[in-house]
Design a protein that fits this description.
Layout: E1 7-11, H1 16-26, H2 31-34, H3 37-49, E2 53-59, E3 63-70, H4 73-81, H5 84-96, H6 99-114, E4 121-128, H7 137-151, E5 156-162, H8 166-174, E6 178-185, E7 188-196
Parallel strand pairs: 4-5
Antiparallel strand pairs: 1-2, 2-3, 3-4, 5-7, 6-7
Amino acid sequence: MAEEKILISKTNREAWKDIFYLYYNYMYDSYFLRLGEKFLQKYLRKLLSLQHVVVFVAMSEKPVGFIIATTNSQWLVKDLVFNFDLFFTFLKLIIHCPQKFFRGLEIVFYPVFTFLKGVKAEFLSIAIVPEYRRKGLGKRLIEEVLNEFAKMGIKKAKVTTLDKNVSVNLLLEKMNFKLQRKFKLLGKIFNLYTYEIY
């Protein structure tokens, strides 16, 4: 049987439904998922419309994976915090379901814990359909973003993972990402990595 060909291409806002499907069904423990489907849809539509966001989708006969990164995480925070639609959706969530406020605190404190002086480019999300995992697709998606960053003259990027996501941590270490620190946020242990782009 011939090996299935997976094409990876840079994409934009038009792909938000495919990315939503993959994110909703295959994302590893995302805080945005805990805020609900409606919030996630608005978040992804806004995220994919931003000029400083880079998105690649892996396609077989259907989408089988994606990766999202930003060239400037500080701009990203500003763009998301000052987006009234997202802000009011978050407020409605808090009013109707106060326990979601605590779920959302992760979003509020995340930029503080992941700040690294001089490092603005950041990997945000990656998800792959289970039957396509452990076949090098995650590595290919990460390499696409690194190549895009290199073309833009970006010298260093960061990524944060959950400590318990062993397969992703092993992949990053194998690709020469350097662990900068571990931190605890709302009871979870995270790893903050950087990568030097040459």
